[in-house]
Specification:
Number of domains: 2
CATH topology of the largest domain: Rossmann fold
Distance between the termini: 59 Å
Order of helices and strands: HEHEEHEHEHEEEHEHHEHEEHEHEE
Number of helices: 11
Radius of gyration: 24 Å
Helix content: 25-40%
Structural class: alpha/beta
Shape: elongated
Bound molecules: S-adenosylmethionine
Largest sheet: 8 strands, mixed
CATH class of the largest domain: Alpha Beta
CATH superfamily of the largest domain: Vaccinia Virus protein VP39
Length: 398
């Protein structure tokens, strides 16, 4: 546990930081964290660990495109049951950590046989904090259910429990510009992971037929102009921890503003057959400040105007609820293969799908199958090398 002296200095004291992400995004999150100059001590499919202060959590929150939460460890202990959990949490000097002029909330990730609902574990943590503050300060702190103020996070696996400050609060995986979601939108953090997986150089054309609410095209434009998610968000949970100095946050924000570029000298193209989808895309792109960087068009994907390659073309088509017969979708997948082969020469093509049967209809041989999850659904992003006519034709799959 952080000692009494240190607990007042969390912004300057190193502890374990765990950054969580959606399953299978951690290789891309790792690239981002390393690019910021941090050394990763452990990684796993839903996150990674490093050492740092609460002040280190500020640039991490503002810069990471693939992350969900940035957690800062306060105490680790053995807890075989809820009574022990309560006792251990009661011992933490919350009066030196949390700003009780607002409210606080508790989140958790629990896998302990004495707990059937995580809400009960959250309640135990809340009770311990409230009881301690009542005893020491004579006030009853307010609690809330959203992540807009201070957030305490419990990770409890079997008999080992960790108490963290969740420095993010509301998830970082949503990037704040998507006011209108559209139909089956891709989570922003996942869109970034898929773009990073393509190895796109951020200076050649990026084409998104079937763009839906525009997430992939908007994230590509944000990446190409070095605009980071922190530019779109003014409230994080670290702001509600005692000792927070707003100059650190504003200095980070100033650096982000300085880095951001206004223009690009290549094309980002986003098309969709639905007029509504393009309207939503345009509005989301405007909120993100990148609408002037994307060429939008309402058309069947096959009529998308593809700039001269090399470049990246990426599809996130519908893939049906279940495996089985999808006659119309089968024809669409076949047409996507034909489109890439005939109109995207010199490009690398990608199709993100959760339906392996439909993927077989594409009719081209994938050079890579990159694993992702979309929510709970096991998905693949298939990669196709679409050689120029004079080079090798894309192989037709048997
Ligand atoms: C799964 S959604 C894409 C979601 C998108 N990635 C996002 O983040 O919002 C699939 C999109 O494909 C579009 N679509 C379906 N058939 C199409 C076609 N033949 N040509 C162009 N777009 C099509 C739909 O209108 C829908 O917006």
């Amino acid at each position: 546990m952080l000692t009494s002296q240190i607990i007042m200095q969390v912004f300057h004291t190193k502890s374990k930081i765990v950054i969580t992400c959606n399953k299978r995004l951690s290789p891309y999150l790792q690239q981002e964290v390393e690019a910021l100059g941090y050394k990763i001590t452990r990684s796993f499919s839903t996150g990674l660990e490093l050492e740092g202060t609460l002040n280190d959590c500020i640039p991490l929150n503002l810069n990471l495109r693939c992350a969900s939460q940035v957690l800062y460890l306060i105490k680790s202990f053995e807890a075989e049951n809820p009574a022990r959990l309560y006792k251990e949490v009661l011992e933490i000097e919350w009066e030196k950590l949390l700003d009780f002029t607002g409210y606080f909330s508790v989140s958790s990730n629990v896998d302990n046989e004495t707990i059937t609902t995580p809400l009960f574990a959250n309640l135990k943590v809340k009770d311990a904090i409230v009881d301690r503050i009542k005893e020491i300060k004579g006030i009853r702190p307010d609690t809330g259910s959203d992540g807009n103020k201070a957030v305490v996070h419990l990770y409890w696996k079997e008999e080992k429990a960790d108490i963290f400050i969740d420095t993010s609060g509301e998830t970082l995986a949503k990037h704040g510009y998507r006011k209108i979601p559209g139909k089956a939108p891709m989570l922003e953090a996942l869109a970034c992971g898929t773009i990073m997986a393509t190895g796109w150089d951020k200076k050649s054309p990026f084409v998104v037929p079937m763009c839906g609410s525009g997430t992939l095209a908007i994230e590509a434009a944000l990446m190409a102009t070095d605009k980071f998610p922190g530019l779109f968000r003014m409230n994080y949970s670290f702001m509600h921890i005692l000792g927070y100095q707003e100059e650190v946050f504003f200095e980070e924000r100033r650096k982000l503003k300085e880095k951001a570029k206004k223009d690009i000298d290549f094309k980002i193209v986003a098309t969709d057959i639905s007029e509504d989808a393009i309207d939503i895309s345009k509005r989301n792109a405007k909120t993100a400040g990148v609408d002037h960087l994307i060429d939008f068009d309402v058309c069947d994907f096959a009529d998308t105007e593809v700039p001269e390659g090399p470049g990246v073309v990426i599809f996130n088509p519908e893939y049906g609820e279940r495996l089985g017969v999808h006659t119309k979708l089968e024809a669409t997948y076949k047409r996507m293969g034909d489109f890439m082969k005939s109109k995207c020469k010199g490009y690398r093509g990608y199709i993100f799908t959760g339906n392996p049967d439909l993927a077989k209809k594409i009719g081209l041989k994938a050079s890579r199958r990159i694993e992702f999850y979309n929510g709970k659904l096991d998905c693949r992003m298939l990669e196709y090398e679409l050689y120029e006519g004079s080079k090798r034709e894309p192989k037709i799959s048997e």
